Fold each of these.
Amino acid sequence: EHPSVALAAVVGVPDPVYQEVGLAWLMRKPGAAALPDQVIRDWCRERLANYKIPKRFEWPDELPMLPVGKVDKLQLKRNSQKGTTSA
């Protein structure tokens, strides 16, 4: 829903403190300015319960898609486990 975000997906990633936290993969709308993570975090805080707010954010140019038009969350999870920040 954020005016600067065209597409978003959240996957769980391992965390040494919480066991697993949310990693949000966000694709900017064409022409949208880059946003600091804190701006998105504050925006989420106004709309989501605290435990649902992602702890980390990645801003790839594109997200991997399945043939049916959905975001390929398995690929995002693999990328995050490898430490890859590009989708």
Note: The CA atoms of residues 54 and 73 lie 15 Å apart.
Amino acid sequence: MINSGSAGAVNIALQAISAADQDRSKSMESLQTGERINKAGDDVAGVSGAAKLRGEITAVAQGIRNIGDFGGFLGTAETIHTGAIDILQSMRVLALQSANGVNSGNERFSINDQAQNLLTQYRQETTGGNLAARFLVDGSFSDKQLTLGAGDDKSLNISIRSIQLPDIGRFSNGTEASMSFTTGAGVATGPIQSGAVFRVNSLGKTAEATLEQGMSARQLADKLRSNGGESLAAAGVELIATTQVKLTSLAAGNMEFKLNGVSVGGIVGGDGDLTNLSSQLNAQSNRTGVTASLDSSRTSLTLTDARGNNISLSDFQSSDGARLELTALEDGADAGATSGIHTGVLESGGNLGATITGRLSLLGHENISIMQTANTGAGQGFVEGDLKNSTFESLGSVDLSTAEGAMKAVSILDHSIARVETGRGRLGATQNTLDSLTRGLGRLQTNLESSHAYIMGADMAKEVSHYAQSRIMLNAAQAMLGQGMKVQSQFLNLLQG
């Protein structure tokens, strides 16, 4: 019969050998792979957490690569913008040269030819055969989603506005000139009535002013500048107030009247010649703030207040039937033909005075809308109706063959340059944002990898110690097994002897 104690020792030794061998194998695997978790059974919760972290790590890594791809596109777009600005600046120099009074018509035609060549170059660089330009600066690169990771909150929409020739230029809007008359002595009250609210909006920036009785275009501009004007300026909106009225001779003779409170007089020749009256008016321009310019026929002259103040003519007198027709002007053109609002006549026994309210012009590189609340009568507000949208003049329309066209081209070019510069500035800001995102995602990736390594990574010192301990336990168990087997063998030998 075999000793039960020896048999039990053998079983214990076998179990110890199995356990020690498993521990040794696990430690050896961890030392080989460098990871604490090599199969799901090693740490069920840890495996799940590590898998989520690994997904985040790969998503962040792809997000960083996506940023690099977008950065390449944005860098190309910025290069195109920079080249476009160089061309526009060269055109502006030509426009200023053409506007110079010493140039003749032939010289201006030559300058205009150079400008048209630059326009062709601009068109080729922003359209033509440039595939990158057609994609990046034609407006089709709109709301492109930059994916930074998984989820709607981990994306960024990027747009590049068109800078192609038909899309850049000058937007213009403005108020309407008007006038009011009086049949008595003294100055006529200005046509603008109080109460309405006047608003200007461009690129989401708004300025507003409450109208006051007799307000001038200059006063409107000042109020807008003090109540949102900085925002408008940031949006590239330019405010220019000017008051102009055309005086046309209807009958010859002597006349006297007051211009902005200053007495003037003149003689209208038999053929309606206003040369004498123009000279008398300009002699008082330092006091009135108004200049007079005679047209080529000498039968009409234009009074201009370049600051946009109201122009008042009062106490008109003529002993021999001289008469003057007044026409309010907007940018040098007739404001309209409505009698009593845009036109009227000064004559003895009729209208003895008039007050003219000028035009506030608004220029910019984006759409400019004008809104006026509260209904006002015709000529009693700065615009007729509630809403007025701007008109657009494309850069492609510039013509430097005349001095007037050259000066207009300078303004159009200024706003075209502002449009392209704004686009380039946005590209720079976006690139800075992408650089910041790259750094942030890089830090996030490092933290995620550290967390993943903490969960999955093996403590090498601990595993070496554990491996050594397992080897000792295995050796001890093997020795125990050998001893147990030896005792049983000796006992059997005794029985057989």
Note: The first helix runs from residue 4 to 33.
